[in-house]
Design goal:
The two termini are 33 Å apart. The protein has 15 helices and 6 strands. It has 315 residues and is of the alpha/beta class. Helix 10 packs across helix 13. It folds into 2 domains: 240 residues, P-loop containing nucleotide triphosphate hydrolases (Rossmann fold, 3-Layer(aba) Sandwich), CATH 3.40.50.300; 59 residues, Histone, subunit A, CATH 1.10.20. Strand 2, helix 2 and strand 3 form a beta-alpha-beta unit. The longest helix has 24 residues.
């Protein structure tokens, strides 16, 4: 891993990462390592905006379709799979382009994870029965620092934070501070896709419409037929949750599109809040692909980190 130099293309959902990354990877002889927490699930293609089969034939992708929707997967498992992929790509003489919007996955890969307790299935089942308001209230009591960082509807991370406290008597924020996340495990160049608010909302809405036009309802029907019910964590994502409500007649397709647009825009805002805390991201619009390609080329070929310093101070 000492020879790994990792380029990262990040940004909020619907910012154009897929198209831009494919073009960059083809130009620069790179393979794409996904950092998206939904793309790991098999059979969930349309509702996750997963790269198509044709796109994945153009450029090799990694850490996509690794578990079934009813199987557990978290940042620690992602880090294991992603590091394995990085090693494989580098050993074959290719370049690594990490692409995604899941901040925790990006941090797990580049900075590592703190050494906390493993999951407790029995405790997890108990906490899964709690509503979001109860989880958030408990988190405020045991770890107000973590509660201030998390959205009150972020069930997965709230449950993990409470679990850590119950198992250790210490707040998860303390473990995270002790870890520090101070330096990357290998040289990294972070490039972020910059999209203005109105353009992003428009893209999110068009993508929601396209999902229904290209078979989202057929996909949700197939998932249910396989036994993957609405209670599963990946089935709670916006596209599948609202499509399932269309399937059972609870809401109309038009209402589902409206809710998907609303909820996805909220997610994009939370992603940007996360990224704003990361100091080393160089933000560029999609139209600056030539600039991105130049920075990545120099970074991958460089024997020093000077390219990063120049990029961060560029006007």
């Amino acid at each position: 891993m000492d020879t790994a130099r990792v380029g990262v293309l990040l940004g909020p959902t619907a910012s154009g990462k897929t198209e831009t990354s494919l073009s960059l990877a083809r130009r620069l002889d790179a393979e794409i390592l996904s950092a998206d927490s939904m793309l790991v699930y098999r059979y969930m293609d349309i509702g996750t905006a997963k790269p198509t089969t044709a796109q994945r034939q153009q450029v090799t992708h990694h850490v996509i379709d690794v578990v079934n929707p009813n199987e557990p997967y978290d940042a620690a498992w992602y880090r294991r799979d992603a590091l394995r992929a990085v090693r494989d790509i580098v050993n074959r003489g290719k370049r690594v382009l990490v692409v995604g919007g899941t901040g925790l996955y990006l941090r797990a890969l580049t900075m590592g994870l703190f050494s906390g307790p493993g999951a407790d299935p029995r405790l997890r089942r108990q906490l899964e029965e709690w509503g979001n308001s109860r989880l958030y209230k408990r988190l405020l009591e045991v770890d107000p620092e973590a509660a201030a960082r998390l959205h009150p509807n972020d069930r997965v991370r709230m449950i993990r934070a409470i679990e850590v406290y119950c198992l250790t008597g210490k707040p998860i924020s303390l473990f995270q501070r002790e870890h520090g996340f101070a330096r990357p495990l290998f040289p990294v160049l972070f490039l972020g896709l910059q999209v203005d608010r109105q353009t992003l909302i428009s893209r999110i809405h068009r993508r929601a419409e396209k999902m229904f036009l290209t078979g989202l309802m057929e996909e949700i029907e197939a998932l249910v037929a396989r036994g993957y019910g609405p209670q599963l964590r990946p089935m709670q994502s916006f596209a599948y949750r609202h499509a399932y409500n269309v399937l059972i007649g609870r809401i109309s397709r038009e209402e589902a599109i409206r809710r998907m647009t609303r909820d996805t825009w909220r997610l994009a805002r939370r992603q940007m809040t996360w990224f704003k805390k990361e100091p080393d991201i160089l933000w560029l619009p999609c139209t600056e692909e030539d600039t991105m390609a130049g920075l990545l080329e120099e970074f991958w070929d460089s024997t020093s980190k000077s390219v990063i310093a120049r990029a961060m101070t560029a006007p």
